[in-house]
Amino acid sequence: MSTELARPAPERVAGLHLTTPLASPLPEDRIAPGPAERRLLDRRDLHLTDCHGCGMLMSTRPQTLGYSLLDSPAGLAAWLGEKFTAYADTRPEVGGGVSVSQQVDNIALYWLTGTCASTARWYREAMGWVPRSAEEENAQPVTTPTACSLFRAAPWTTARRWAQRRYEDLRTWHELDRGGHFPGLEQPDLLVSEIRDAFRQVRDQPTHPLNSP
């Protein structure tokens, strides 16, 4: 993950752009939150209780799942297709989420290369370095200049206040009115614009390594 590239060696990373900052609420954040944070907490809790089973399965039993996905194209299509619907901004007025054509292309990429199991194993391997709590996250601060683009329908929500505790040099925080977990497929032009804007700001800092000879 991008955060793990920047955190251990910030001097080697010019800037960081995130659509899913790894920053969680502390227990005290749940005590009398404001309306905006209450909505974020509710959406986050819904994801953890109703949608995050896939992540738990892949992080604990990826190989069992991998054999099934490698054996059945219908199973693979169901596994990935459900996520494309559940995690995207499917409102017709903003593009309808991930198109069927895009889904077929993505599913075919996994099927034809036989990479279903190895992809699932990434979740197991990540267990060793992804913090398991807000306290663990905040004990691993990120000092690299950071820009965040938050897409409306993304299931893993974060409040700016939570992110500022971990990302110590948070330059920009854009909460966008469309898009979901797959912005590269749903809103590619908007994503490109956000990335360019983030690194333009980094480039314009005269003392930053990007401007070194």
Describe this structure in words.
Helix 4 (62-71) runs antiparallel to helix 7 (116-126) and helix 5 (73-86) crosses helix 6. A three-stranded parallel β-sheet has the order 1-2-3, sandwiched between helices. Strand 2 (146-150), helix 9 and strand 3 form a beta-alpha-beta unit. The chain has eleven helices and three strands. The radius of gyration is 18 Å and the shape is globular. The protein has helices at residues 2-6, 35-51, 53-60, 62-71, 73-86, 100-113, 116-126, 134-138, 160-166, 183-186, 188-203; strands spanning 16-18, 146-150, 170-175. The protein is mainly alpha-helical and 213 residues long. The two termini are 28 Å apart.
Radius of gyration using CA atoms only: 18 Å
Sheet/helix structural class: mainly alpha
How many alpha or pi helices?
A: 11
Largest sheet: 3 strands, parallel
Provide mean pLDDT, rounded.
Answer: 90
Q: Name the strands of the widest sheet in spatial order.
A: 1-2-3
Give the overall shape: globular
**Topology, number of strands:** 3
Strand percentage: 5-15%
List its traits.
213 residues; mainly alpha; 3-stranded parallel sheet; 52% helix
Provide a quick synopsis of the model.
The chain is mainly alpha-helical and 213 residues long. Helix content is 52%, strand content 7%. The two termini are 28 Å apart.
Produce the secondary structure layout.
Layout lengths: L1 H5 L9 E3 L16 H17 L1 H8 L1 H10 L1 H14 L13 H14 L2 H11 L7 H5 L7 E5 L9 H7 L3 E6 L7 H4 L1 H16 L10
Parallel strand pairs: 1-2, 2-3
Helix pairs in contact: 3-7, 4-5, 4-7, 5-6
